[in-house]
Amino acid sequence: MHIHILGICGTFMGGLALLARTAGHTVSGCDANVYPPMSTQLADQGIHLIEGYDAAQVELKPDLFVIGNVVMRGNLLMEAILNNHLPYISGPQWLAQHILEGKWVLAVAGTHGKTTTSSMLAWILEYAGLAPGYLIGGVPENFGWSARLGNTRGELRDSPFFVIEADEYDTAFFDKRSKFIHYQSKTVVLNNLEYDHADIFPDLAAIERQFHHFVRTIPSNGLIVANGRDVALQRVLTQGCWTAVELFDSPQGWQVLTGIDRSIQIIFQDQLQGTLNWDLLGKHNRLNALAALAAARHAGIPAAVGIEALTNFKNVKRRMEYRGTVNGIQVYDDFAHHPTAIQTTLAGLREKVGVSRIIAVLEPRSNTMKSGVWQDSLAKSLIQADRVFCYTNQLGWDVHSALATLGEKVSTHDHLQQMIDSIVSMTRAGDHIVVMSNGSFGGLHDKLLVSLGRHAMA
Fold first, then answer.
1. Residues annotated in the binding site, as ranges?
2. pTM value?
């Protein structure tokens, strides 16, 4: 089958393209922004990419057009597809029908931690010899790719297990259900639930309804692994649940006890399962580990094996990813783009560095952040930072006023190079710079490292 993917450079659709290509399909695609690293990753797989959505692409005559949720009515190619009555389908539905059918799907949902928890879970299954397929909205460093089909080691047959990051964002312009509704999941992690995606959800209650629809799709012989302290998830489950629930961060289920030298004791139903020694920062990652261990146990992997696997877990690119040290100044890259994620990221780093200075560099780039929905909670999320630099380019709300309670430690900038120069001028050996954005941030990480090096030589 030849499929042509509209919106192919998104993390989900790009991963789908890799899976389809590996499964033997001919794959081509288009996007408004074809640039590395996704363009390079796809080109390396022999996937033909086209810049833009011109209507002439219907002349490629694929068997099926697969539509990403970035595509809206008025898109020239989409209008040509509709006007010519050509076959099309959403990305999640194609995935469900052609990749996930017959699989034991382990899905990780929630506002925060989906990518990291999915990566942990896939790695535990891999370490245990189950060689799962997976589709994750990031690049797990233990694997090096955002998606793969998976094969049982030493055998020709596909692995029955597939791990997927289950997003609540809508499916397509013609299907406003959340993506995760399509996946027919058997094991489900519900990490947490907060308001997000202000561009499509009016309030938290609307997101809770989608999560309840998701719960309705989980079979009675499946398992829901849920955060025991999350009030919104409690509301979701009390709307109706037909599946066994196992709690984490709860005395009734999975817990962690933090020991010395970053060792973590894993407890399940008051029984010690083992001790995890690792370098990942923060309480949020400890909870991610609990969720992954519980989900893997449902797939038949003992907690002791899962704990051993996590000692070798290398995290995910852009999740507190160390980018370099110049003149004793360390630079990290993090995907945090929600006040809760910002707060937990900085709290985890503070746990590690003690009284050393933390410089937070923030780009409010997500649709929800740009809307100003979180402006009243942004300052509180940055309290752990000693200095805050915020890039305000093309924002429709007053960031400086929103961060005024942080006083003189805040600087806002409309120009990237100006902000870099300001950061470089005030840093000193022993500082830790955390760059937080869900985009490329104009290549700030590399530019900052270069500028720090030049400053050190001056």
1. 110-116
2. 0.83
